[in-house]
Design a protein that fits this description.
This protein is an alpha/beta fold and 331 residues long. It is 40% helix and 23% strand. The strands form 2 sheets. The chain has a 9-stranded mixed beta sheet, sandwiched between helices. Strands 3-8-7-2-4 form a 5-stranded mixed beta sheet. It is globular. The chain starts with a strand and ends with a helix. The mean pLDDT is 96.
């Protein structure tokens, strides 16, 4: 296999700001959710934040995951869509520096590259208002079947369910993977995806996926229940293996036979943006590099604990190697 992980997702440049809760209330922004907005609304919010310190970085949920796998020493391919503007140049260069192969060598179209306004409140919660831009037009034309067939896992973010062209592209990619013996994996990505786009997620999941990532709230919403035990039972009907992240309480990892409780690494979080993406990237790296599901869960828990202590969804390249070294030293 040439690639450990073949990812599909929205290509978004993150613009991250620290804001008080009062800002979200005043601006009518729903806290803790990812909300799709048009460019005018995003510009309105940015105007109010003009002059505030911000961090710009390559983003997009699945992109953060495949970048993590690559910087831990794995191999990744990423299918996405950016425009031929400055943001698109920035995004393409970020992926190249991480060593991620992409479909972006093709001529990029006119348009606007997607942007995600990430607002971090004092409790470290991330709230996102996203303008998808050209990424909303992601389609099966961007999928590279040869690279997909030459991968161990195909991985999709749940956010793609909102796009009329990207959703069938993911369905097709999942089918290609099953036919080629490539394992299928996805993340629910955000509670709003489960709450408002359930039918689309069911279409992507089809007869089931090999590996599913979600957090507690997403699991409860999917299970339409109030207890995690019931939610886990519902997840086992659609995923052969799965991970439920529990924030500061660690995670649950089901390996297809046994449930493993993963302890957290206690830290003081400053920004939860990208925590789930990092967990998925570290976990996928672990199980494609000889770790058991329980070991991969502990490794992913450590990695997620590191990324929440900094602003932005990604770490410096050298920090990924340090996490891997620290984990090996603790085993």
């Amino acid at each position: 296999m040439k690639y450990n992980v073949y990812g599909l997702g929205n290509a978004l440049v993150d613009m991250e700001f620290e804001v008080p809760d009062a800002f979200l209330e005043t601006m009518g922004v729903e806290k803790g959710f990812m909300t799709l907005v048009d460019e005018e609304r995003q510009f309105e919010l940015l105007e109010y934040l003009r002059g505030e310190h911000s961090v710009r970085s390559g983003g997009g949920s699945a992109a953060n995951t495949v970048v993590a796998n690559a910087l831990f020493g794995g191999s990744s391919f990423y299918t996405c869509l950016v425009s031929n503007d400055e943001m698109g140049d920035f995004y393409t260069q970020e992926l190249a520096r991480a060593g991620v192969d992409t479909n972006l060598a093709d001529r990029r179209a006119e348009g606007v590259t997607g942007k995600c306004l990430v607002m971090i409140t004092p409790d470290a919660e991330r709230t996102m208002n996203t303008f998808l831009g050209i990424s909303e037009s992601l389609s099966a034309a961007e999928v590279r079947p040869d690279a997909l067939r030459d991968s161990e896992f195909v991985y999709s973010e749940g956010y793609l369910v909102t796009s009329p062209s990207a959703r069938p592209a993911v369905v097709e990619a999942m089918q290609l993977a099953r036919e080629a013996g490539v394992k299928t994996s996805m993340s629910f990505s955000d509670p709003s995806m489960v709450k408002y786009f359930r039918l689309g997620l069911e279409e992507i999941i089809g007869a089931g996926v090999d590996l599913l990532f979600c957090n507690r709230e997403e699991a409860l919403l999917w299970g339409e229940c109030r207890t995690l035990a019931k939610a886990v039972d519902r997840l086992s009907r659609i995923a052969r293996t799965f991970v439920v992240t529990l924030g500061g309480e660690g995670a649950l990892v089901y390996d297809g036979h046994e449930m493993h409780e993963i302890d957290p690494y206690p830290v003081t979080p400053v920004d939860t943006n990208g925590a789930g993406d990092m967990f998925a990237g570290a976990f996928l790296h672990g199980i494609t590099h000889g770790m058991s599901y329980a070991e991969a869960g502990r490794f992913a828990s450590l990695a997620a604990s590191r990324v929440v202590t900094v602003f932005g969804p990604r770490l410096k390249p050298e920090e990924y190697a340090q996490i891997l070294a620290d984990f090996r030293g603790d085993r």
